């Protein structure tokens, strides 16, 4: 299949490589051209513009946020204006439910197909072609692109015929991870102020009831108090909770735990946490308890972003 | 070793049986004698009173709550008055940190030894001798009873020389489980109101990031909306969150997620949830969202317990 | 002064009338012309379009929400395109901080002046010319319009030279009122389940520590459980809390009480509360406690707005 | 009437003085005798023991907390053992609902009468005889002591025939005050980070919608950031919220705002806030927002009270 790929970040680069390995004909586009070089070595061609990369059977976009996606989709040089009727746009970015709905409408009006297909998995999983794909869209559209999903992932979950529903599922997954971070943060604050070593405590948890990688991964970060360099930066975590709450507001679903997470992220960012891993919210409970050295004591309070 | 065992509930019965299988000399005591019969068949003797069962090298108590433990420990016929100097009391019940501290002091004053050793694992795990034991106490005391731990569990974690610390760790574990329930409840309320099937959603979660038995177990209960019969009843869950918050208050550790759980349990109990499994708090988010049939609609509101 | 007035709702009608009484030359515009008749009797002229009403020394807009304001401000027929250089736009609507910032920029680019001047007071206060005006803008601009403020209000508070700051203060005021509602709702749920009559309780509060009209007004609504007809409808309350949280997010200020209020409003709206007064969130605590007849029991759950 | 008065703190001293001014025959008892001198000058006699002061028609106790009340009530030398059958004990202390219930039962068993009568008002109000009295008890009992209430207060509210209900009302009042503090703290954090002067903001609030002394009093403390010396110390505030939550738990009433206040007080106490006024929780929102100088930066974290 002739595939155009937009967005060669940590995730996109691995995904595009696996499409090439599955012998698809892949053209890549990225704002910074250097990132395309490794893929060219694997057989990719490079496109000089969004318009050019959009002339394909399927375009896949894998970008950081709503603004980045809107920037490549709209306008005369954008995906919608240049994708052929009947061709498919797969949006794999973690974006808002509202934007996904807008994209579906725009492609529909242009006689094109649209599939939302965010993924679960970190960059190493993307590189290994072992992602989990959460897909939603018209069954015919998904049938067309299933071979691509098979190239980049180990399993595809089709959750709805309405694309935005896949985005909702993806956001809810990040909410659940952040909930694990918060719960571990509170539990560790409690037991460590009570005299228990945090690493031993984590060993107990992950040896018994919580033997999932996610508890191991985030528990270690919190026990170590080591939040740099960021695997997934705090502002991205804050964005995903914001999008979760926005989707929940549209659906009129109160989510008190998500509200708590929102406040945690704002506290973190208000104290200069922008460069930290999102798991740094897991240290706020200990700080409230006066049970840890505040990492921000040595820093100046962050300037307000609007002053 | 000559062991006295108090409390032959679902957990205690399995633990006592494994002590017998390891060839310890076990006398058992239970308020309802019938429960002792199966153990007698395995070689146990029965004691007619607490005082009698306490005349042993080691007494193990495994009871439902603080009140039950206080009832067997104090008074002329209680454990403290009848245990020999130098003998050990192992408290495996999930009790308050404050009561554990009182027990440690009482045994110390009587020249006896005290080890707190709550366990992780459900009745089937206890029957299989595969419990995880969270132990705290003086190293000498723990050394004496380690053979007993080896008989009932697969691994012992020694967390402190101060007994009450083991109780704190146990309570924190139940807090973490309740947090999983709440987070699943919110996520399921959100995606199901958004049009996703709850069972498919749970399959996605447990196939990907949350492949731990705890997510499978509790997620299924919430997706099914089936909370009876109770595996662990709501009032016990409410009690454990109350004890967690009480311990946190003494240590001055604010726990906003535990506070949320507290309010969830009270809402559940206020609507007649006493006989439900504690995972029923996982349906409250959906109810707040108007996204599920309220299970309590057909019931009268529960009468206030004090009026 | 030659004044154009846009928005003759309950608030705007009273404000425009008082400008006429102070002998200003007022042209009015409203989507539904009938509302202008009473003002014409007081000496107003009617404008056939936004463009026409904008040809004045000062334009005042008093509309329901961001969307309404954006609809009259932009486009070729809008306020910005038709207001003369050096003329002033006073925005008295309760709008988002972000929109206020956009308006300020648009007017600045067009060589016009902009003052944000939301007000405190209900329709009867507006009719009596006794509003409190929260104003922000360049001192020169405010000096120009001060005579108009004197005509509609009893006092003007100038809080900043940056217009959007006045909108922030207005939103924070509505947050504080909603906080009073929530706190009264919780206190009444508690004491009424404990056996105290809610009206007697309110009499105690307002006779002692809480002798402010706001406690009397909202406490009576909650004690009566009478939320229709709405003085200020729940969706407007929900909007204001949403805008408060949005402003707080931009400033990185976590507001846990505002988060709680957000969840309360969503619960209310999820159960068909759109037509109720916003004080109906004050009955949710009693419902969670099983201490009141649920008003929504007889209703079908509200359909999700997006399905 | 022959009155015995126990507890000559800031509140009790004023109350006892007003009983003397109303020509009652008052014997006083206090742990520190010096406090009785001023009252002796007004005509009081001093009692050498609780037993002695309890030999009266009516005994009034006005003490700091549950423990102090239990210490004077029980035992052979306590109030219950020494009060005559048919005589009345008025408990004016802010105590738990549970203790009030126990006191009622103990007096009932001893053939004595019991009235709970906590008060609203600060020491200056007590000195002026202008307290508000929240009374509950059997109508006959209250009729007996009404002349005493008239001597110390400006108005008596009789809320129930069950004494503990008066304690519930009193606790709920302190919860409402703490709610005002929290809401002001959040609003001030928001607007001050947005550029508004806190004192001007408070002036706006108290000139408009929130013209109650309680907003003026607590708003000034928060705007000044001046929490020492404490008018009502943080540990007392924390205690009252704890007792409110305990009463709510018994009645199964979830109170999310009270839960938030609980966490705020624990955060304050965890950072050395024991000597501060309880309104210091009103600065925590600004601290979370990085918008104020942390008062505790210069202090060592408070040691855990149990380690």
The helix/strand order of chain A is: EHEHEHEHHEHEEHEHEHHHHHH
Taken as a percent bin, the fraction of beta residues of chain A is 5-15%
**At the first level of CATH, what is the class of the largest domain in chain A?**
Alpha Beta
CATH fold label of the largest domain in chain A: Rossmann fold
Q: What is the number of E strands of chain A?
A: 9
Which two chains share the most extensive interface? C-D, 63 and 63 residues
State the helicity of chain A in percent bands: 40-55%
Distance between the termini of chain A: 50 Å
Lateral arrangement of strands in the main beta sheet of chain A: 3-2-1-4-5-6
Average pLDDT score of chain A: 93
Low-confidence stretches of chain A: 294-307
CATH architecture grouping of the largest domain in chain A: 3-Layer(aba) Sandwich
Largest sheet of chain A: 6 strands, parallel
CATH superfamily of the largest domain in chain A: NAD(P)-binding Rossmann-like Domain
Radius of gyration of chain A: 21 Å
Helix-and-strand structural type of chain A: alpha/beta
Number of helical stretches of at least 4 residues of chain A: 14
Overall body shape of chain A: elongated
Quick gist of this model?
4 copies of one chain form a homotetramer. Chain A is α/β, with parallel strands linked by helices. Chain A has 14 helices and 9 strands.
Describe the 3D structure:
- Chains A, B, C, D: This is 3-hydroxyisobutyrate dehydrogenase-like beta-hydroxyacid dehydrogenase.
- Chains A, B, C, D: Keywords: NAD, Oxidoreductase.
- Chains A, B, C, D: Residues 2-157 form the 6-phosphogluconate dehydrogenase NADP-binding domain.
- The structure is a homotetramer of 307-residue chains.
- With 307 residues, chain A is an alpha/beta fold.
- Chain A has two domains: 2-162, NAD(P)-binding Rossmann-like Domain (Rossmann fold), CATH 3.40.50; 168-288, N-(1-d-carboxylethyl)-l-norvaline Dehydrogenase, domain 2.
- Helices cover 50% and strands 13% of the residues of chain A.
- Chain A has helices at 10-21, 37-41, 50-53, 66-73, 79-82, 97-109, 123-127, 139-152, 164-193, 198-207, 213-224, 234-251, 256-270, 284-288; strands at residues 2-6, 25-29, 45-46, 58-61, 88-91, 113-116, 119-120, 131-136, 153-160.
- Mean pLDDT of chain A is 93; it is low at 294-307.
- The interface between C and D is large, with 63 and 63 residues.
